[in-house]
Amino acid sequence: MPNPIFPSSRPDRIRNMLAELVTFDTISDRTNLPLIAHIESYLAFLGVKGERITDETGTKASLWVTIGPEDKPGLVLSGHTDVVPVVGQDWSHDPFKLVERDGKLYGRGTTDMKGFVAVCLAMVPEMLEAKLTTPIHLAISYDEEIGCVGVRPMLAEIAKKKVRPLGAFIGEPTEMKVIIGHKGKHGVRATFHGLARHSSIAPDGVNAIEHAAELITEIRRRAVKLATEAERNSLYDVPHSTLLTSIVHGGAALNIVPDTCTVDFECRGIGIAESKEVTDAIVAWAKAEIEPAMKAGHPECGIDFEEILDYPALDTKADAAIVTLAKQLAGRNDHAKGAFGTEASLFTSMADIPSVVIGPGSIAQAHTPDEFIAMAELEKCASFVEKLIAHCAKN
C-alpha cells in the first residue's frame, strides 16, 4: 500500500483515495466487506482502529471511527459505501475504474457518495496531526440506496454510547450547500388476491386488477388534495407533500380474470412522520372500502399490505448550532431544503444527533451513466473538513 501520509499533494491524496474506493463494486445487492476491510487496513496503517458493525447476514458492515478523545462529544462526518447499479446504462468506460478528463473524475459512486468518503479518509492524517480536543467521528454505512438500511444498526450502537455526538454532517451531494431539511418517505406494496376464471365467465371471478385500479384512483385523488390543500414549504422545489403509484404488476393472459395484482405506492411528506400517516390512512381506506367487495366475491380474496421503505423527514432548525457551524465551515450564510432523502433524518430520530446534509458534487450527476464529480468540488469539501479540523483542535 502506498504511504498515505506523504503523497505529493492533498488533491493527489484525495484523487488516489477515490480511485481506490471506486474499484470496489459495492452495488447494494453485493457485499461491501472488501471495501470496509480496505478502509480498516488504511486506518490501521495510521494507527487508527474503527468499530465494525456487521449485519445479520455477515455480508455487510458499517464502520464507526473516532479520532481524538473518546470521552468527549464530537462531530460526525457520515457517508455510505453502496452505489446504484450500472446495468442498462451506456457508460463510455469501465464504471469501476476512475477516469479523469478536464478536471472531472468519472466512475460509479464518485458523486454519490464515494467522493465525500474519499476526502474524509484522505484527511485522517491531518486529523491526527491536529491533536483534536473535540473528536471527529467517521460513520461509514451500507445499503443507503435501498432505504437507508445499513446506517440503522450503527445508529443503534451509537445511541447506547455514554457520550453522544454534538452533531453530524451527512456528505450527500449538495454542491456544498447547507441542507437543513428533506421530506420523509414511506413506501407500501399492496398485493391484491382475486379469483381466476375464464374471461367468458368473468362475473364468476374476482378481478384483482380492477380492484387495484380503485386503490390507484384513490391514491391519485389524495395526491391532488395534498398538492392543493396540504401544508406548503417554499424551501422545497416541490413545496408540498407528494403521493403516487409507481409500480403495478398483474394479469397472466387476456382471457383470464386476473387473480393477482401488486401496486407499489409512496408518499414523500414534509412533516416528520407525515409520509407514514398518509399511507396508513390509504391502507385503512382500502381495507374498509375495497376488501369487503373482494371477500363478497370469495372469502379468501383480499389485500395484503407490506411496508417496503420508511424514513422520517429531516427538519433541523435554521438556528441550530450544527447549522451555524456548517455555514461557518462552508463559508456560506444561506441554507435550503433538499428534494431527496438521506440518512440525516435517522441520525436525528434514532440517535438524537442534530444533522445537516452537506457534501461535494451535484445530485444531477448521481445515478447516471458516466457519473462524475469535479475535482474543484472535492477541493471545496477538503477545505470544509480542514476548517472542521481546526475547529475541533481549538474547542
Automatic annotation (TrEMBL):
Domain Peptidase M20 dimerisation: 180-290
Keywords: Amino-acid biosynthesis, Arginine biosynthesis, Cobalt, Cytoplasm, Hydrolase, Metal-binding, Zinc
GO MF annotation list: acetylornithine deacetylase activity
Keyword Zinc part of the UniProt annotation: yes
SUPFAM superfamilies: Bacterial exopeptidase dimerisation domain, Zn-dependent exopeptidases
EC number: 3.5.1.16
UniProt keyword annotation of Amino-acid biosynthesis present: yes
Required cofactor(s): Zn(2+)
PANTHER family membership: ACETYLORNITHINE DEACETYLASE, N-ACETYL-L-CITRULLINE DEACETYLASE
Family as reported in the entry's similarity comment: Belongs to the peptidase M20A family. ArgE subfamily.
Protein name: Acetylornithine deacetylase
UniProt organism field: Bradyrhizobium guangzhouense
